[in-house]
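Onboarding guide, step 5: your first structure request.
Type a short instruction followed by the sequence, for example:

Predict the 3D structure of this protein.
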Amino acid sequence: MNRQELHTMAIKAREQQASCKHKIGVCCGAGCISIGAEEVLKKMQEDVKARGLESEVAVVPTGCMGPCNQGPLVKYLPENTIYQKVNAASVAEFNQAQLVEGKPILSSLIFADSRTKPFINAAEDPFFHKQLKIALKDCGELNPEDIDDYLVHGGYTALSKVLFQMSAEEVIAEMKQSRLRGRGGAGYPTGFKWETVYKYVSDQKYVICNGDEGDPGAFMDRSVLEGNPHRVLEGMAIAAFAIGANKGYAYIRGEYPLAIKRIELAIKQAKKIGLLGSNILGSSFSFEVEVRIGAGAFVCGEETALIASIEGKRGTPRPRPPFPAESGLWGKPTLINNVETFAAIVPIINNGGEWYSEIGTPKSAGTKVFALAGKINNAGLIEVAMGTTLREIVYDIGGGIQGEGQFKAAQTGGPSGGCIPASHLDVKMDYEALVSLGSIMGSGGLIIMDEQSDMVDVARFFMEFCMDESCGKCVPCRVGTKMMHDLLEKIYMGSATKLDLDRLEELAIYVREASLCGLGASAPNPFMSTLRHFREEYENKIQPEVQLVKGI
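The system replies with structure tokens like these:
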């Protein structure tokens, strides 16, 4: 297929969709599937057919719509109304109201835009109105298992633009201008990373998509892969063109079977019509993508361990330099970005780097996807502009703390991150601000805790996770995390003294400074941040020192 044929195919797909007056999307992300979404989808298709409306109404599965704890979710288009907690038994009622009578059922309505007024004012919606979806755009609306639906939403036009209107240098310049930073946790400038790999001369280069998302409570990358896999593939192809690679690997966490299924299907669909493979769109550019499945090792999220795993070796980190940009997969220059980073590439190419750079803060451009979980009313997947305050996320988007609880802390960055106390609720969620509080952005896990949470127990939980997930290659991490966990356990059980706490603080520095990779280096973070902001909770559990009196 050439460029003109892609354009023709997209037009035909749009015309086919335009023949339908309505589109009903049933969220079939992993969360909604777990509570009956597939049954709702089947019943919805049956009900539409029974009404004789199958030529007018398209019923499709979609990816995550956002408010995960309110599923199964159903979206009606073009009205753009979203209903929560829909079950198979109520499908006929919803279709009668929405398709026949044209009136939404307000008791189950979770979102409606201005086109649905006067039924509801979208500006008063507690979950959606402060979000800005770029990486998640079209998730929850298009069918992730249908490449035609992706083409209808402008899919692969960015790749076409790059292949026929831009040079590799121009693509990299656009990425640098966007100020996009890697969304995997480190926040390294994406354009500079691409430029570094581009400058190395080699007969072979690789692109790797890191989908080995392992932080407790995190599900951002999983949802993107489940909801819009072609967006990720298109981003990978653009990156490959920019750095001069012709081979890519999507490394996906093994516990994500639906994400794996959909990315594999997307690869097959793209190859079938010539959007992957040899001479894409009739150009001289060729690019192949393979899926590699992780075996459940958290450490394989670290780039050198991930590379070792793809090569068929034990997934353990290696010292750097050399960095993967110079000597990565099989010793060749390799570009590694995570899922969310690749999902942001297409809109940057389509809208320009300057457009993206104007979103967010001066040092943290664009948007960030967060997995909002814990003691929060509106748990789920959100995307906000960098610089949005934690207060806005918790009380506007999140709808506040569950029950009568009061906000106590937010854990960001997973096992590598730290806790933000209530006194810093107005912190702007960007890279620099979080580091200043002893936390990190991380990949985007955001766990909300109320006053019932024991911060010593929180630190103990994350230290146990790091201890279990240590690959054991270096002593500071293998032994140090075990010693730190034992001391935290001793403090939590009320049998420690101040000397134990002092030893724990000293040990945290050793583990952080001497560990080989980021897992060990960041393992002390939850302890150090909770000690910094909640020291009294540690001191309250410590036994008083035994006073020795001479002569007794």
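Each response can be followed by summary notes, for example: Residues 147-356 form a domain with the Rossmann fold fold (CATH 3.40.50.11540).
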